[in-house]
Amino acid sequence: MRASAPAGSRHAYVTLVSNADYALGARALIRSIRATGTKADITVLVTGAVGQGDRAPLAALGARLIEVDLLPTSDAFNAAHARDRIHGLAPFTRGEKPPFHTPLDNFAKLRLWQMEEYAAVVFIDADALMLQNCDRLFAYPEFCAAPNVYESLGDFHRMNSGVFTARPSTETYRRMLAALDAPGAFWPRTDQTFLQHFFPDWHGLPVFDNMLQYVWFNMPELWDWRAIRILHFQYEKPWQSPHPKAEILAPLIALWQAHAGDGPLPDIATLPGPGV
Q: Which residues are within 8 A (CB) of 58 and not within 5 positions of it... i.e. 6 or more apart?
């Protein structure tokens, strides 16, 4: 792991960028975190597939970049979690994953447990925006995540790994690798399935700490801009073109585009609600 600069804080918001598309997402995420006034580090784990041209905008926003390798998993594990195979065995039926979605890369986020320069971190997927300061999460225990609610309360028992709290520890990382690549292991939703298995007593965060975009049209009564702290664009990404749900998600896409640019950010309180 090679860092672009020393840590500047004992706390960090961490994301993972494994290709050029997620670098686009990370730029908007970093800008949104900066806008909250946090003093924590903003750290990006970047894999070797991310070129210097895609890294430069992230560094320009003050992010600390750490180059990481994919996990040292076995050939059998890699074959089981290749995109075509995992999408064939565990297809997504409620939304569409974009072509740049590479399931095996997702496991690289486990590298954050090696970052012992930090006492506490909050991981946020690169396809998200922070709309309010979330520094309170650094005081939360390991492991906290919000439920995977976006269609009905029937999903409340499942966690979503797009936002979670962690305490870096090389010993935890070692135990994770041993549990991850066990003989015959198959994690149908990659890191999400694995983390729920590894932390069976995970603590629940409010859905507003990881509000999934499908709530906008599936459960509009749950949507409250004033309460949402992190907005997560699960399934289709706001920078996709063409976007299969561009019309129904237009206000959310416009919000992401504002963060992805260089202009002023909108006042969340003025945004329309679902169906408006």
A: 17, 23, 26, 27, 30, 44, 46, 65
Q: What is the pTM of this model?
A: 0.94
Structural contact between residues 269 and 225, judged by C-beta atoms closer than 8 angstroms = yes
In tens, the pLDDT along 52-110 reads 999 999 999 999 999 999 999 999 999 999 877 666 555 655 655 555 567 889 999 99
Going along the chain from its start, the domains and CATH numbers come out as 2-270 (3.90.550.10)
- Helix/strand/coil (H, E, C) string of the chain? CEECCCCCCCEEEEEEECCHHHHHHHHHHHHHHHCCCCCCEEEEEECCCCCHHHHHHHHHCCCEEEECCCCCCCHHHHHHCCHHHHHHHCCCCCCCCCCCCCHHHHHHHHHHHHCCCCCEEEEECCCEEECCCCHHHHHCCCCEEEECCCCCHHHCCCEEEEEEEECCCHHHHHHHHHHHCCCCCCCCCCHHHHHHHHCCCCEECCHHHCEECCHHHHCHHHCCCCCCCEEECCCCCCCCCCCCCCCCCHHHHHHHHHHHCCCCCCCHHHCCCCCC
